[in-house]
Amino acid sequence: MYGRIGTMTGIPTTTNPVFADFSACCDPITGGVLDTAAAERLAAVLKALAEPTRLRLVSLIAAHDRAEACVCDLTDPVGLSQPTVSHHLRILADAGLIERDQRGKWAYYRLIPGVLDALAGVLATADRRRRAADSAQQVRVERLAPGRRRS
User: Fold this and answer.
1) Least confident of 10-14, 17-21, 115-119
2) Which residue has the higher pLDDT, 142 or 108?
3) Which of 38, 74, 112, 127 pairs with 121 at a CA distance of 20 to 30 A?
4) Residue 89 class from Cβ within 10 Å (0-12 exposed, 13-18 middle, 19+ buried)?
5) Is 1.25.40.10 the CATH number for 13-143?
6) Which burial class, exposed, middle or buried, applies to 90 when counting CB atoms under 10 A from its CB (0-12, 13-18, 19+)?
7) Where are the domains of the chain?
8) Alpha helices by DSSP H, 95-114
9) Residue whose C-alpha is closest to residue 34's, from 45, 23, 44
10) How far apart are CA 109 and CA 115, in angstroms?
11) Is 47:2 a contact under the CB 8 Å cutoff?
């Protein structure tokens, strides 16, 4: 259901395979639209975040001390069993959002540094393009408004 789209090695976001080509394809000055492969990877990440429990888990991990939390600390706040929470965390890890560190019998999870910023950047770039296109359209409409001479 949720295919593995990147390995969690703790590498910086700029070289994280999940987001590797988003910045190149989404530069507001030179970029075009997402290619098919990038759109599929981005959709997989957004799909992982679209489930309310997983979105809450990301929020809890980000707010926890050192932006890292033991799975045992996450079960009570979301009101789910440890196996269910672990399942949701695995989906987030497979999507390239968090990484797992096994310490004895407990697993600790942390956000991959910069991943949420990279995701926000991709979405903000799309919004900037839309606003720029809207502004350009408004300028064209104003130039052709009645009472103005067309050159």
Assistant:
1) 10-14
2) 108
3) 74
4) buried
5) no
6) middle
7) 13-143
8) none
9) 23
10) 14
11) yes
Which residue type sits at 100?
A: R
Q: Which amino acid is at 58?
A: V
Least confident of 53-57, 99-103, 140-144: 140-144
Q: Rounded distance, CA 59 to CA 44, Å?
A: 19
Q: Is the CB of residue 35 less than 8 Å from the CB of residue 75?
A: no
- The alpha carbon of residue 2 and the mean position of all alpha carbons in its chain are separated, in whole angstroms, by 15
Measured CA to CA, the distance from residue 35 to residue 26 in angstroms comes to 10
Distances 44 to 57, 76, 133, 140 between C-alpha atoms, Å: 17, 27, 27, 37
Burial of 7 per CB tally in 10 Å (0-12, 13-18, 19+): middle
Helix or strand or coil: residue 76? Answer: helix
> Residue 68 and residue 55: Cα distance in Å, rounded?
15
Six token digits for residue 44:
């997989």
Q: Could you report how far apart the first and last alpha carbons of the chain are, in Å?
A: 57
pLDDT of residue 1: 44
Contact status, residue 146 vs residue 42, Cβ threshold 8 Å: no
